[in-house]
Amino acid sequence: MFILNTCAPILPVIDFSRHLNNRLAPFSAVTLSTQNHAPRLIRTPVFVSQAQKLQGEVGIDVDVEVEVEDEDVDVEDKTTSRKAYRGRRSEEGKDYDKDPEFADILGSCLDDPQRAKSKMADRLKNKRDKILHTKTGSATPVKVTFNKFDFSNSYIWFEFYNAPLERDVSLICDAIRAWHIIGRLGGCNSMNMQLSQSHMDKRPSYDVISGANVTPTTFYNTGDLEIQDNLARIWVDIGTTEPLLLDVLINALTQISSDFVGIKQLVFGGSEFENWKENLKSEDAGCSVHKI
């Protein structure tokens, strides 16, 4: 008998001690063990050719049977690798039962890689809106002007390229609300800009005594956001002359205009603006009021 192992070269070992006076007795099988799993018998052309070569040299009849094991194949039910992916919880704790489509793609990547690639491309195409968010705003920068702006009592006017959608209005309201909260808490005080005015090539330091003695700035009050078609306005009472508060708002609205809803222009101050109708309150005419 030939005993072949995967950790050793595949060379036949023949026991001549039992047949010193006779020619080699016929032997029947070569045993190859790969792993500790249930084996099955298959015919392997490589070993058959080796046996035929020995038959010609020694003059014996050799019947080669090779025992190998298939990790994924069971003799009784022959479970395929595709089924092995489904319902299996991996070592990292991922449960592919929660996404059968992804499990099917993983299962087909071994049997048909081209089909798996095509299905993955279709998956990305169908779910593109959940993965990649395209910009819906305007590439044109927002025009910013000041018209007798009073920090204590003024309107801020918005002109959009189109009438804003409900989600756009909600985003703008959230931005103004956050701006008001930060300002009311004194977060936009240009008199205490220690880190932004220091050199960042070394470890920054902060003087708490100096920061505590700076005159505080407080955002006093703001009104509701009023909308008429593609126009909007909001009344503000910033209270103190703090240009940093305006910079923060302009930066936020510029980004919103670029990524989400296009803002044609932003005007600080003034009691009137283009086609704004002061006494128009009907929602049927495209008017709405949103609480800040």
Q: What's the CATH class of the largest domain, please? A: Alpha Beta
Task: Give the N-terminus to C-terminus distance in angstroms.
Answer: 89 Å
Average pLDDT, rounded to a whole number, is 75
- Describe the main β-sheet briefly: 7 strands, mixed
DSSP summary, beta strand count: 11
How does the overall form come out from the CA principal axes? flat
CATH architecture field of the largest domain: 2-Layer Sandwich
**CATH structural fold name of the largest domain:** Alpha-Beta Plaits
Which key features would you list for this structure?
DUF3531, two-stranded parallel sheet, seven-stranded mixed β-sheet, Alpha-Beta Plaits, alpha+beta, 3 domains, 8 helices, 292 residues, flat
